[in-house]
Amino acid sequence: MDSAASITREDILKQFPIKVELHVHLEGAVRLETILDLGRQKKIDLPAGTVDELKKYVCVYKASDLTKALENFYIFGPTFAGYHEGVYRVAYEFCEDAAKQGVRYSEVRYSPHFLSNSLGVQTYAASTGGSYTPRDVVTSVNQGLADGGKKFGVTVRSILCCVRHHPEWSYLVVELCKEFAAQGVVAMDIAGPEIGSIVTDTDQSLHLAAYKKANTLGVKCIAHAGEVGPAEMVRMSVYDYGARRVGHGYRCEEDEELFQRVVKDGVHFETCPISSLKTGGAPNGLDKHPIVKMAKDGASFSINSDDPTLFDNTLSDDYICALKMGLTKQDIVKSIFNAVKASFASDAEKQQLFAELQAAYGDQ
């Protein structure tokens, strides 16, 4: 393995030819070229007309507050949210981009309400008086992922997201997860601000009720937790919400007893190295990064890209970042195997993935 300081994306693709990705947001994995193209087609105002210029408005390059970083979605989201053609294209192109990174299996997440224009931002559908429901969104995404997956040789399942400061959406998310389970929707997630005045105690109780319903219906559950919020968010997500996986989870390590309990119980951490450095998830930077402790203590974790549009990254970049943090090649290989184990793929799909991984990396 070359030194982490000099390793390139091409090196990563050669040394890690097969990958599995579990934590990436569809809304945050849109090509900048597509944003510009759809914006022109639908006559949606954007702050820039070239990719390089658009990056200045959309991408986060310096450490930023998570909530502030997420506001960038309002700049480019209107170009594809609110109508079938835009959402379908984003889903289809996601498959091609995943395949280029050597991803064989992925679980991409999104908010059906955000993509349906439930936030009321100006979109093509809104400007023409059209109606495009969260259920329509799931249908569009499923079609895009199915067609793109077949074309580019990658299996992509989807996860539907609740949004913390919109608890009124959560029951429908549960219902859509159940309704579309046979069409590739494999789990329910919750994302958005963990703490602060934007999320009330009432919101939390409503989400808890939705998660209890999901568990009753057999819908698999995961949750963003402990990214910038306290360790208590991880405890609540795992032991109250019934989450089988935790998105990020870095702050769980601030409570050693809880961290060891979660590790012992086999909870999987979906880590995102680059985004953790840019959203406050890892306040110590590369030095003593939480992912290193996860590897050292035998936690189950995977490496993921989170929001490539926001952070101008690829999954290969996150592998490079993990190496710079101090992870070894073997740590990363193990994380790929762990991703398969923690995935919501079928038993047959897991068996095939393990066979491919063993052929590429040997037995683990």
TrEMBL record:
Q: Does Hydrolase count among this protein's keywords? A: yes
One GO term under biological process is: purine ribonucleoside monophosphate biosynthetic process
The UniProt entry lists membrane topology as: Peripheral membrane protein
Task: Give the location in the cell.
Answer: Cell membrane
Required co-factors: Zn(2+)
Mention any one GO cellular component term assigned to this protein in its UniProt record: external side of plasma membrane
Per the record, the major location class is membrane
* Family annotation (InterPro entries): A/AMP_deam_AS (IPR006650), A_deaminase_dom (IPR001365), Ado/ade_deaminase (IPR006330), Metal_Hydrolase (IPR032466)
All copies of domain Adenosine deaminase, residue ranges: 19-358
Question: A single Gene Ontology molecular function, please?
Answer: metal ion binding
Q: Keywords assigned by UniProt?
A: Hydrolase, Metal-binding, Zinc
One Pfam entry name: A_deaminase
Reported EC number(s) for this entry are 3.5.4.4
Q: Which SUPFAM superfamilies match?
A: Metallo-dependent hydrolases
PROSITE patterns per the UniProt record, alphabetical: A_DEAMINASE
Identify the PANTHER family for this entry. ADENOSINE DEAMINASE
Q: Which family does it belong to?
A: Belongs to the metallo-dependent hydrolases superfamily. Adenosine and AMP deaminases family.
Protein name, UniProt field: Adenosine deaminase
